[in-house]
Design goal:
Elements lengths: L8 E4 L3 E3 L4 E3 L2 H8 L12 E4 L7 H9 L13 H9 L5 H6 L2 H8 L1 H17 L5 H25 L2 H4 L7 E7 L2 E14 L5 E10 L1 H4 L17 E8 L3 E8 L9 H17 L18 H18 L9 H29 L4 H13 L11 H7 L6 H9 L8 H8 L16 H10 L1
Parallel strand pairs: 1-4
Antiparallel strand pairs: 2-3, 5-6, 5-9, 6-7, 7-8
Helix pairs in contact: 1-2, 3-14, 6-12, 7-11, 7-12, 14-15
Length: 443
């Protein structure tokens, strides 16, 4: 809770806050908003800000909080039917004139130089990347992406609890994909079902993390570490939908995993297994081993086999610098997407924003008889101009259809309260016969 008043000292009792979803670090905008209250004008030479840090915080996080930028002030301007009708009613002004001079439009016009500079930078970066035999690399890249899409579909099917759970024995090796984060082989420890309508299982896995992220308390801040590099094994909870591959191999799990030495012993076992399988660990066959015999799975397996064969036979596969070339082209493809996005942003900023919404609003108003083809408002339009609390069109239609004619004042107020009522109710209240009909018309 914040007070909109100056004070000599501002005290942050914690560097984290719960935002309704997670316990996270405060943002630089929140820090600036609160710390800006320190120091009373005309009374204090300087304000004092005290930030209590009761847990380990990385230098990067601390710098982002204290030295970060304030939250940008963005216009939330939105066209409404009431606004359009009131602008049509005034002579010498029209909705297009108002749109051109709105703060929303000004913000986008003012962003044009920065967007143009961003577009030029992206185009220069794109042109600077020269790839030999680019068409050949592009075909390999497209094949690889198609293969990944098929793998995603296969992963969705094998992650169905009825197929997945029987193979989540302790020691099972699995790979995990969470957004852009790819975890090398992790070790399954146990799992449990999370309460809820949709079946969701939480799996505890032993994953190889970077030293810095392994020291963090929150799982949202973890970063995977390749098994070939130095890191630390740590138990993390994951959703069952994040599993990517399931190996046919299981490793031995010690009884006590609380010590770092026991967890590192498992890491050594996993590294030894990977060393004995240079072509990759054997995976469970979705059809033969897991018993998924649906037509979709059979089709995906055939697609995967075909694409994998084409990928293995591709001329680029024999290139000794394949990894470097692929990463270079992937970076170029990413920059190409940035160029396209920058062009679209620039085009949007240069055009009159929300003009499409305005045309659609006018079309609705003409069809319902609120204004004519010359944008001159009629009687219904003048009535709707005076309604700005609830839905102006629905309220006007109720008025002109005579819904309120036979209602008493209290009944009319009860019906109108539907437009402003925000309280959540689990049960439908019992209505008198006089209100049931009007409520059905409103709905």
């Amino acid at each position: 809770m914040g007070l909109n008043m100056p004070a000599r000292t501002v005290l942050f009792t914690a560097a984290r806050k719960f935002d309704g979803k997670e316990l996270r670090w405060i943002t630089s905008g929140e820090y600036i908003q609160m710390s800006g209250r320190a120091g009373r004008r005309g009374k204090d030479e300087r304000g004092i800000v005290v930030l209590i840090i009761d847990e380990r915080m990385s230098p990067t996080t601390a710098k982002e909080i204290v030295k970060g930028k304030a939250d940008p002030l963005n216009s939330a301007f939105k066209l409404t039917y009431n606004m359009v009708l009131n602008l049509l009613r005034v002579e010498g002004i029209n909705p297009e004139f108002m749109l051109e001079r709105s703060f929303y439009q000004f913000q986008h016009f003012s962003s044009i130089p920065a967007l143009y500079e961003k577009l030029q930078t992206c185009e220069q970066q794109y042109d600077s990347i020269k790839i030999e035999n680019e068409d050949e690399v592009a075909s390999y890249y497209k094949l690889k992406k198609k293969l990944e899409l098929v793998q995603d579909q296969i992963a969705i099917m094998i992650n169905e609890p009825k197929y997945l759970l029987p193979f989540l024995q302790p020691g099972r090796l699995v790979t995990v994909k969470c957004g852009d984060l790819n975890f090398d082989w992790c070790v399954v420890l146990n799992f449990h079902k999370k309460p809820g309508e949709k079946p969701l299982y939480i799996i505890d896995v032993l994953a190889h993390l970077t030293f810095e992220s392994a020291a963090q308390k929150l799982t949202v801040e973890i970063q995977p570490c390749p098994l070939s590099e130095r890191g630390e094994m740590k138990v993390i909870p994951i959703q069952h939908t994040l599993i990517r591959d399931i190996s046919a191999i299981r490793v031995y799990i010690p009884d006590d995993l609380r010590t770092k030495e026991s967890r590192q012993t498992i890491l050594k076992s996993v590294q030894d297994i990977i060393g004995r399988h240079p072509l990759g660990l054997p995976l469970l066959d979705p059809i033969r081993d897991m018993g998924i015999k649906s037509s979709d799975m059979i089709s995906y397996i055939k697609q995967y086999s075909t694409l994998q064969t084409r990928l293995d036979e591709h001329p680029l596969t024999k290139n000794s610098q394949l990894i470097y070339i692929y990463e270079q082209y992937e970076r170029k493809a990413h920059i190409e997407k940035q160029v396209i996005d920058a062009k679209n942003e620039l085009k949007k900023a240069q055009s009159l924003l929300q003009i499409g919404d305005l045309k659609r609003h006018k079309r609705v108003l003409r069809r319902l008889g609120y204004c004519n083809s010359a944008d001159v408002i009629d009687l219904k339009g003048r009535v709707a101009c005076e309604i700005d609390t609830g839905d102006e069109l629905v309220t006007t239609e109720l008025l002109f259809n005579g819904v309120f004619n036979d209602l008493t004042v209290s009944q009319a107020c009860a019906l109108l309260s539907c437009f402003v009522f925000q309280e959540k109710a689990n049960e439908m209240p019992k209505l008198p016969q006089e209100l049931s009909g009007p409520l059905r018309l409103l709905q």
